[in-house]
Amino acid sequence: MANSKRVLFQKRRLRVRNKLRKVNAGRMRLSVHRSNKNISVQLIDDVKGVTLASASSMEKDLGLVGKNTVETAQKLGSTIAERAKKAGVEEAYFDRGGFLYHGRIKALADAAREGGLKL
Prior knowledge:
This protein is of the alpha+beta class. It contains 3 helices and 4 strands; from the N terminus they run αβββαβα. The chain has a single domain, classed as Nucleotidyltransferase, domain 5. Helices cover 39% and strands 21% of the residues. It has a 4-stranded mixed sheet. One of its GO terms (molecular function) is 5S rRNA binding.
């Protein structure tokens, strides 16, 4: 049976997440989801099972609705870094899910690092 794109994506997502859980116990997780139209990011405490901060390109106050570009990802990265600082988090690990680390995903991570979040 040939592996479909979805199956390969799920394998990558599980491989990344399991590796991060083993290595970075106790740290918050910065999880990213990218669709064709939008991108969203959450800061998650896996021990308590709660989301501490989040940002999305669908938020009207950010003025990014309907735009899914590298510039949008950079804006979201700096926004999540600000919100993480307000929540008292300075260090997290980057969970890219099954997405490849380039383009919008990389731009978001770099902007979060520039915003003061240690990934």
